[in-house]
Amino acid sequence: MVEWTDFERDTIKDIFSKMEYEVVGPAALARCLVVYPWTQRYFGNFGNLYNAAAIKGNPMVSKHGTTILHGLDRAVKNMDDIKNTYTELSVLHSEKLHVDPDNFKLLADCLTIVVAAQLGKEFTGEVQAAFQKFLAVAVSSLGRQYH
Amino acid sequence: MSLSDKDKAAVKLLWSKISKSSDAIGNDALSRMIVVYPQTKTYFAHWPDLSPGSPHVKAHGKTVMGGIALAVSKIDDLRAGLLDLSEQHAYKLRVDPANFKILSHCILVVISMMFPKEFTPEAHVSLDKFLSGVSLALSERYR
Predict the structure, then answer these.
(1) CA–CA distance, B135 with B142 (Å, rounded to integer)
(2) pLDDT class of A45 with cuts at 50, 70, 90
(3) Nearest CA to CA, how far is B109 from chain A (Å)?
(4) Under an 8 A CB cutoff, do B120 and A52 touch?
(5) What range(s) does the Globin domain occupy (chain B) (predicted)?
(6) Taking CB atoms and an 8 Å limit, are B112 and A113 in contact across chains?
(7) Exposure string over A14-29, b if 16+ CB within 10 A, otherwise e
(8) Which of A73, A117, B38, B86 holds its CA 20 to 30 A away from the CA of B97?
(9) What is the mean pLDDT of residues B49-64?
(10) What's the pLDDT at B1?
(11) pLDDT of residue A88
């Protein structure tokens, strides 16, 4: 089981409670699709992803970015059992979506950078450490049911 | 994943906007790397004070960003341009190259914090490619 300090718990809950999911989610996913273009392989039916402007303006990207953050929200609300909370999601990503789990880390890095831009100076080293630890647990749990 | 002309232009443009803050960027990036990735402390065991913003950390952040500035000026041939630095890292410092990725990530985070408007996804991808190229050039002489 993952051990969370009080600081880590408070930090994660604080960040997500203040977050605008419909802004951060789309921004993080769009950034991922631009910075790591091979991730576009999973979104063949999303239409126009030809350039950064198209990706940013794509409504399916926006909608999916928000969906992803709501998925992360489940982990925020169950920080002491993210592993089991994500069992079904992990099976989905493996069996149905066939997503290479290495991609989860790429998206996590983009989310970190978007949140850093939002929080500015508040995104101290300690806050970054807590945020990245949380994302690492989420990423690991999402990859757990792959076989 | 080599640097296109578009990447080089993007890196030079972004650098022109952020270079005056390079000392601050280096200090913050190195300070938070030590906090976020404690295993990196193993390279700085000889410093008396590893706390964020301490004199050693500040000075070293400046040194690192000096290397980045050099890399920007040698962007057309990073391998040749950074050969001396590669020798230093390979034979003297012997930093495991995995750490180049870690520090690169911290640099990106700091730039995102300090220059949110300039650090668009387009600028991000070019800078990420550039830092990967720098890391590769630094590893050139390792084996």
Answers:
(1) 12
(2) very high
(3) 5
(4) yes
(5) 2-143
(6) yes
(7) ebbeebebeebbbbbb
(8) A117
(9) 96
(10) 77
(11) 96
Residue A1 pLDDT exceeds 90:
no
| Average pLDDT, integer, range A76-98 | 96
Dihedral angle sign, alpha carbons of residues B81, B86, B92, B95:
positive
- Give which of B117, B17, B81 is closest to B25, Cα–Cα: B17
- Give the Cα separation of A57 and A49 in Å (integer): 9
pTM above 0.90, yes or no: yes
Give residue A138's identity as a one-letter amino acid code. Answer: A
Do the Cβ atoms of A116 and B109 come within 8 Å? yes
- Nearest-CA distance A134 → chain B (Å): 12
Q: How far, in Å, CA of B99 to CA of A131, rounded?
A: 20
Q: What is the DSSP secondary-structure string of B111-140?
A: HHHH-TTT--HHHHHHHHHHHHHHHHHHTT
The answer to whether B110 touches A41, Cβ cutoff 8 Å, is no
> So what's the ipTM on this one?
0.90
User: For the ranges A20-34, A109-123, B41-55, B103-117, which has the lowest average pLDDT?
Assistant: B41-55
Residues whose CB falls within 8 Å of the CB of residue B37, separated by 6 or more in sequence, listed in order: B102
Q: What is the C-alpha separation between A75 and A71, in angstroms, rounded? A: 7
**Token pair belonging to B80:** 């040749």
The stretch B129-136 carries a mean pLDDT of: 98
Residue reference for tokens 């992360």: A72
CB-based contact A120 B122, cutoff 8 Å: no
For chain A, state the CA radius of gyration: 15
Distance in angstroms (rounded) separating the CA atoms of residues B30 and B75: 23
